[in-house]
Amino acid sequence: MRILGFAAAVALTVSSPLAAQSINYGDDSSDWANNNECDDRRFIGKSMTTILNNEDVGRDATDCEAGVAAGVLKVWSLTESLEATQCEAIDFGDDSGEFADDNECDDARFEGMGMASGVGQDNIRTDASDCSRFCAAGIVSLRNY
């Protein structure tokens, strides 16, 4: 089985038990593995952690696999998310964040190519210029659709 990179994983949609079985969850080498929260930003759902970093992709297998098996997580899909995201209806907030207007979206509600490598809940609605611009361009979309 080949290992899914981040770009390949965002295109994968879990729509059947067979698709769920084909996910390469990786290993448990993250500092945050086995804490009952999925730290792999390829996934969305109720058992996700509140801080997401690129370095944890494929490194929290047990937690993420358990979430998918329980039906509370699925693989984040760029296609589904872009279709569901209505940028004009989003409250992007302001540019009061520490990393605002740095050409990366730092708002944890979003995912995509224009995202910072690490995002947390404290950055929600504090990077309006970057996130709104990237949303309109179709390179970030809402994670929670």
Q: Helices and strands in order, then pairings?
A:
Layout: H1 6-11, H2 17-21, E1 43-45, E2 51-53, H3 61-70, E3 73-75, H4 78-84, E4 105-107, E5 110-112, E6 115-120, H5 128-137, E7 140-142
Parallel strand pairs: 4-6
Antiparallel strand pairs: 1-3, 2-6, 5-7
Write a brief caption for the model.
The protein is α+β, with helices and mostly antiparallel strands. It has helices at 6-11, 17-21, 61-70, 78-84, 128-137; strands at residues 43-45, 51-53, 73-75, 105-107, 110-112, 115-120, 140-142.
Kindly describe this structure.
The chain has 145 residues and is an alpha+beta fold. It has two domains: 6-76, no CATH class; 79-142, no CATH class. 26% of the residues lie in helices and 17% in strands. It has five helices and seven strands. It has helices at residues 6-11, 17-21, 61-70, 78-84, 128-137, and strands at residues 43-45, 51-53, 73-75, 105-107, 110-112, 115-120, 140-142. The strands form three sheets. Strands 2-6-4 form a three-stranded mixed β-sheet. The model is unreliable at 1-20 (pLDDT under 50).
Keywords:
17% strand; 2 domains; alpha+beta; three-stranded mixed beta sheet; disordered N terminus
The assigned structural class equals alpha+beta
Spell the H/E element sequence: HHEEHEHEEEHE
Secondary structure: helix percent:
25-40%
Number of helices: 5
Query: How many structural domains are formed by the residues?
Result: 2
Strand content is 15-25%
Major pleated sheet: 3 strands, mixed
Overall spatial form: globular
Please report the total strand number as a whole number: 7
Let me know the average pLDDT.
84
- Alpha carbon gyration radius: 15 Å
End-to-end distance: 30 Å
Q: Can you tell me the residue ranges where pLDDT is under 50 for at least 5 consecutive residues?
A: 1-20
Widest sheet: strand ordering: 2-6-4
